[in-house]
């Protein structure tokens, strides 16, 4: 993608670093413009979304011997792979605890969230699509007594609950935050983005 932009007027700077160790306030090209920075991401898997949110909220800057934290102007993140979230990196832990969910509950929520996109629909011949043996699926889901549509709905609800923890975190940080649907689910089942702008 850098090659496509090399002849443009945009200033491109590639930074190779684990996002959990990145402090935007120490990047010379933007350290004095953090209030104008907007974080954009497309399908950062699971916990990487939470690490990116933390990075944007904790833009550490140095001023002599003092270190200060500055917030960026906003963010827009296309969400995905909630099943890959982890309790350690998740920003919405206080939200979950407030509503009575434990770390174990969160882990189960992440697992079940995959039902929203696991593509275990049946074909016209009544065969399951996917790599999992049909007998296994039938036994597993017969025990649950859940139709595909019900599993998909539950999976989506788990995704949204995980996202509500993120929204709550951002609101507590002084942002207006919301979820938006940016494309029809017929194009992509991962069609929800997190949008947040700083109130100040």
TrEMBL record:
Molecular-function annotations in GO:
tRNA 2'-O-methyltransferase activity; zinc ion binding
EC class name: transferase
Question: Where do the coiled-coil regions begin and end?
Answer: none
Mention one GO biological process in which this protein takes part, according to its record.
tRNA methylation
| Annotated family | Belongs to the methyltransferase TRM13 family.
* Name assigned to this protein: tRNA:m(4)X modification enzyme TRM13
Which residues belong to any copy of the Methyltransferase TRM13 domain? 2-196
Q: Which InterPro entries match?
A: Methyltransferase_TRM13, Trm13
Enzyme Commission number(s): 2.1.1.225
Write out the catalysed reaction. cytidine(4) in tRNA(Gly)(GCC) + S-adenosyl-L-methionine = 2'-O-methylcytidine(4) in tRNA(Gly)(GCC) + S-adenosyl-L-homocysteine + H(+); adenosine(4) in tRNA(His) + S-adenosyl-L-methionine = 2'-O-methyladenosine(4) in tRNA(His) + S-adenosyl-L-homocysteine + H(+); cytidine(4) in tRNA(Pro) + S-adenosyl-L-methionine = 2'-O-methylcytidine(4) in tRNA(Pro) + S-adenosyl-L-homocysteine + H(+)
Q: What does this protein do?
A: tRNA methylase which 2'-O-methylates cytidine(4) in tRNA(Pro) and tRNA(Gly)(GCC), and adenosine(4) in tRNA(His).
Q: Which UniProt keywords apply?
A: Metal-binding, Methyltransferase, S-adenosyl-L-methionine, Transferase, tRNA processing, Zinc, Zinc-finger
């Amino acid at each position: 993608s850098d090659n496509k932009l090399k002849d443009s007027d945009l200033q491109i700077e590639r930074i190779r670093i684990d996002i959990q160790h990145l402090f935007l306030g120490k990047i010379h090209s933007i350290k004095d413009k953090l209030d104008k920075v907007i974080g954009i991401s497309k399908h950062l898997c699971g916990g990487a979304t939470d690490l990116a949110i933390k990075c944007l909220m904790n833009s550490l800057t140095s001023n002599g011997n003092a270190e200060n934290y500055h917030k960026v102007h906003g963010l827009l993140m296309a969400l995905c792979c909630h099943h890959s979230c982890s309790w350690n990196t998740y920003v919405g832990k206080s939200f979950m605890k407030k509503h009575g969910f434990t770390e174990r509950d969160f882990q189960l929520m992440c697992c079940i969230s995959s039902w929203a996109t696991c593509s275990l629909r049946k074909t016209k011949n009544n065969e399951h699509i996917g790599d999992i043996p049909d007998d296994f699926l039938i036994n597993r889901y017969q025990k649950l007594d859940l139709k595909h549509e019900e599993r998909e709905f539950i999976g989506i609800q788990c995704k949204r609950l995980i996202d509500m923890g993120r929204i709550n975190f951002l609101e507590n940080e002084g942002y207006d935050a919301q979820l938006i649907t940016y494309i029809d689910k017929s194009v992509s089942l991962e069609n929800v983005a997190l949008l947040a702008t700083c109130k100040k």
